[in-house]
């Protein structure tokens, strides 16, 4: 697996220092507890959150000192505001347009690659991710369910039209050829901070079929996860013998209810996350350290034993 690390951009390692919260290194007890969990979990569902993407240079929302809420007054886009107000859509798309080049260039890190190795070894029923960055796909994972959608697909709110975010970027560039910005930080969903003048001059994209508003295929705050996706995840939890949470505080209910279901069905549950989570008091195992510091070694031993 380590040979794949050559594809990880060197700049990401300096980004870790900025966006990964303070944490203790894993100790021997942490390692053995998680190794025992992995050895006994033959068909596990892996649930990932923003805490694994921070190691690739994408900030999360809630981490102490380094999360978006701690570093700025920014509040994430609300679904109803996006649908209702053209100015909100204009602001969103202007910021997303500028941030897209850097956001889409982010590469998976050792945690994504370790998960892929577990999947290749037949140990993973599915990967449910709260992230919209498609880093699991870039790492080569196959069985990925994007709980909150993805920033890589854009859909019309009034008709069935959809377009890839890459193709839309080309259209946005044609319509906004002079739009430029220097920025220091992308946000978890890929947008950046711009001046009011820059936003006001931006030409918002419209559906070429019906001229309706376009929206990324992301479940914004205040919106609901589609029912069919919820049911699919429920079935995946039921068909798994364990749930392994990586890099999520489980603050939002859409992820927390996965743990509640697993608990009700008496599945073994382990959490590997820096800092506390919403489910710490109801799970079997909680290890507080950085995923990338422990998971690759665990993965190598687990998959090696599996192949013997």
Automatic annotation (TrEMBL):
Residues annotated for Zn(2+) binding in this entry: 156, 159, 207, 210
Residues reported to bind NAD(+): 49-69, 130-133, 247-249, 273-275, 291
Domain of life: Eukaryota
Intracellular or extracellular location(s): Mitochondrion matrix
EC number(s) per entry: 2.3.1.-
Catalytic reaction equation(s): N(6)-acetyl-L-lysyl-[protein] + NAD(+) + H2O = 2''-O-acetyl-ADP-D-ribose + nicotinamide + L-lysyl-[protein]
Active site: 148
InterPro entries documented for this protein: DHS-like_NAD/FAD-binding_dom, NAD-dep_sirtuin_deacylases, Sirtuin, Sirtuin_cat_small_dom_sf, Sirtuin_class_II, Ssirtuin_cat_dom
CDD domains, per database record: SIRT4
Similarity annotation: Belongs to the sirtuin family. Class II subfamily.
Name this protein carries in UniProt: NAD-dependent protein deacylase
Organism: Trichoplusia ni (Cabbage looper)
């Amino acid at each position: 697996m380590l040979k794949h690390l050559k594809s990880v951009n060197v700049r990401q390692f300096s980004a870790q220092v900025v966006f990964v919260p303070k944490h203790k290194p894993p100790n021997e007890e942490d390692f053995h507890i998680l190794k025992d969990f992995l050895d006994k979990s033959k068909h596990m569902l892996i649930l990932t959150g923003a805490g694994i993407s921070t190691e690739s240079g994408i900030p999360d929302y809630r981490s102490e000192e380094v999360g978006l809420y701690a570093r700025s007054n920014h509040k994430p886009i609300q679904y109803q505001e996006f649908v209702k107000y053209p100015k909100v859509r204009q602001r969103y798309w202007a910021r997303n347009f500028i941030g897209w080049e850097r956001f889409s260039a982010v590469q998976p890190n050792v945690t994504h690659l370790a998960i892929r190795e577990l999947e290749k070894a037949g140990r993973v029923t599915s990967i449910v991710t709260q992230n919209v960055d498609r880093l699991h796909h870039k790492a080569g994972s196959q069985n990925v369910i994007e709980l909150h959608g993805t920033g890589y697909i854009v859909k019309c709110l009034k008709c069935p039209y959809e377009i890839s975010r890459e193709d839309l970027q080309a259209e946005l560039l044609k319509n906004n050829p002079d739009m430029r910005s220097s920025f220091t930080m992308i946000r978890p969903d890929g947008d950046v901070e711009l001046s009011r003048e820059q936003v006001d001059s931006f030409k918002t994209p419209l559906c070429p079929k019906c001229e309706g508003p376009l929206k990324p295929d992301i479940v914004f705050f205040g919106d609901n996860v589609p029912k069919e996706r919820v049911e699919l995840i429920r079935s995946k939890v039921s068909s798994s013998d364990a749930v392994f949470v990586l890099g999520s505080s489980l603050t939002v209910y859409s992820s927390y209810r996965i743990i509640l279901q697993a608990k009700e069905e008496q599945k073994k549950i382990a959490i590997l996350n820096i800092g506390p989570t919403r489910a710490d008091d109801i799970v079997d195992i909680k290890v507080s350290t950085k995923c990338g510091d422990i998971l690759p070694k665990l993965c190598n031993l687990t998959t090696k034993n599996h192949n013997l």
